[in-house]
Design a protein that fits this description.
The chain is mostly helical. It has helices spanning 2-7, 9-19, 23-62, 64-108, 112-124, 161-185, and strands spanning 129-137, 140-147, 152-154. The protein has a 3-stranded antiparallel sheet with strand order 1-2-3. It is elongated.
């Protein structure tokens, strides 16, 4: 002990503290150390299990067959995505072309009377309503009124009483102007017009 104390001066202090302890203190500390050791061993065993599982999963993922399967699935998903994107582009292009054709057809078949009524309506409403048109609804013609934001509203559904009156007035004035021009072009007198409130 003397030689050990010479090489390690703190051993003397350790021996002195051990001499002051009784058997009960040593037993309590031994139990605490044993419990701590068991906890460390449990944690080490759990870590070993997790490490083993991770290694097994890594080995499985690195295996040639699994890697090939995953690569094939990824290629298949990309091919399906490309096919869907191409189909969407074609359908979208067809839809745009059809809409342009329909708009062009409607423009070519535009009724001059309705165009004039629309221009009059835009003046009467200060641009809140900008046009009058017609559409075929299952064989029946329907009158549409175009709002300033470009939306078409059926004249028999979505108009207030005041707006409906303005549409009626615009149509009547356009009809009067049309008949007046036709009479004048035929060499006849102008069309007399009587208005009241």
């Amino acid at each position: 002990v003397a030689l050990l104390a010479e090489d390690h001066p703190d051993v003397t202090a350790l021996l002195a503290s051990l001499g002051a302890r009784d058997d009960a203190d040593v037993d309590v500390e031994a139990e605490e150390r044993a419990a701590a050791l068991e906890e460390v061993q449990r944690a080490a065993a759990l870590a070993q299990q997790e490490l083993g599982s991770a290694r097994a999963e890594l080995h499985r993922l690195e295996g040639a067959s699994d890697a090939n399967v995953l690569a094939a699935r990824a290629a298949e998903a990309l091919a399906r995505l490309a096919e869907s994107a191409e189909r969407y582009v074609v359908v979208d292009l067809q839809r745009r072309l059809l809409r342009e054709q329909l708009e062009g057809f409607a423009t070519r078949r535009a009724n001059p009377l309705l165009e004039e009524a629309g221009a009059l309506l835009a003046e009467l409403t200060d641009g809140r309503w900008t046009g009058v048109g017609a559409t075929d609804d299952g064989g029946a013609r329907r009158l549409l009124v175009r709002r300033g934001d470009g939306a078409d509203v059926p004249a028999d559904e979505g108009l207030s009483e005041g707006t409906a009156d303005q549409v009626f007035l615009a149509l009547r004035l356009a009809a009067v102007a049309h008949q007046h021009r036709a009479r004048r072009a035929a060499g006849g007198p102008g069309l007399p017009v009587v208005l009241d409130d």
